[in-house]
């Protein structure tokens, strides 16, 4: 199966609302592409990936606290 065929099958399984949302998102990203990550952001991602590979994790409560999302 090609990537194109797999994508068609995936889209066929989506509801009309989901397809509409996906299409809107694609159009927005064409107009406003995401900005590239800064070197410090890339380093942070690499540190997080390394921690994940080593089995280290942060609890949901700690993540919420760090990002100011406490309930």
Give your account of this protein's structure.
It is a single chain. With 71 residues, this protein is an all-alpha fold. Helices cover 69% and strands 0% of the residues. It is built from 4 helices and no strands. The chain has helices at 3-13, 16-31, 39-53, 60-66. The N and C termini lie far apart (45 Å).
Structural key phrases:
mainly alpha; single chain
Q: Concise description?
A:
69% of the residues lie in helices and 0% in strands. The protein has helices at residues 3-13, 16-31, 39-53, 60-66.
Protein topology:
Blueprint: H1 3-13, H2 16-31, H3 39-53, H4 60-66
Low-confidence stretches: none
Average of pLDDT: 90
What is the gyration radius calculated from CA atoms? 18 Å
What structural class do helix, strand and pairing data support? mainly alpha
Order of helices and strands: HHHH
Q: What proportion of the residues is helical, as a percent range?
A: 55-70%
Number of helices: 4
User: What profile does the largest beta sheet have?
Assistant: none
Number of E strands: 0
Principal-axis shape equals elongated
In angstroms, what separates the terminal alpha carbons? 45 Å
Query: Approximately how much beta-strand content do the residues carry?
Result: under 5%
């Amino acid at each position: 199966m090609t990537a194109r065929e797999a994508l068609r099958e995936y889209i066929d399984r989506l509801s009309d609302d989901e397809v509409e949302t996906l299409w809107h998102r694609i159009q927005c990203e064409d107009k406003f592409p995401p900005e590239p990550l800064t070197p410090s952001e890339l380093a942070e991602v690499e540190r997080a990936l390394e921690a994940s590979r080593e089995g280290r994790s942060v609890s949901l409560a700690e993540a919420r606290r760090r990002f100011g999302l406490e309930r």
